[in-house]
Amino acid sequence: MRVLIFSSPRSASYSYGTLLSETHGLYDVGEPWPLYFYDNPNLKTTLEQSNELYLGNQNACMKLHSGHVAEYMPHRHRGWFQDVLNATDEIHFLLRKDTQAQIKSLFVANYYSTLVDKQDKFFKNVFEGTWQEDLVIPDTPVNRALWKRMEMLIHVNLVGLSILYHTLIDQNPKVVWTEDIVDKLPGQKYNRPVKFDWEPEYMFANDEFYPAQNNQIFAPNKDKF
After folding, report:
1. Cβ atoms of 167 and 91 closer than 8 Å
2. 3-state SS of the chain: helix, strand, coil percent to 5?
3. pTM of this prediction?
4. What pLDDT score does 173 carry?
5. H-helix or E-strand containing 142?
6. How far apart are CA 20 and CA 16, in angstroms?
7. pLDDT, tens digit, for every residue of 195-205?
8. Contacts of 78 (CB under 8 A, 6+ apart)
9. Element (H, E) at 29
10. Which candidate, 220, 207, 202, places its Cα nearest to that of 154?
11. Domains along the chain?
């Protein structure tokens, strides 16, 4: 069985892949390649390895953000995404109900990464950081700009995921909410107390503003059009 997991940043997709791997005996491929490191000389090798592990393994799971599917990405042959879909038995959308908490988590992870010694090359360790005392976030133009970028990154990912979800609706994608399975997820639970010197404003604060209504957006279609 091959399971394709669509997710967005800070949705516990790494732990969910581990859970599927342990529960169903699947090889956890992870992500096909990092989204942000365009100049990484290992990108082509990473993608080729992911293709081989997922497409060449009868039992595997792989996670994608909406940006992963674009055909123009480097080292990706035309039709790659269709090949992945054709090989997939189950499609899961892993989502967070609390968009605001997701934005805050992504902001804190990125802010914290700027505090880590630049000689620390382990990106994974940076984003899995944990601490005991309050991490105070100062009110600066740089931090406010970072907050807005993280909001837009989550927004763009959710828009992309909603398009994918309704495009693939006939394949009966399964919607999984992070909050509903958090107690089942393996691995470390983050301890990240944070105190802001300003009150961040959420452009998703209005319940009527897309994509705040995730429960409605990612609901099964009852009617065929």
Report:
1. no
2. 45, 15, 40
3. 0.84
4. 95
5. helix 141-167
6. 6
7. 999 999 887 66
8. 71
9. strand 27-30
10. 202
11. 2-217 (3.40.50)
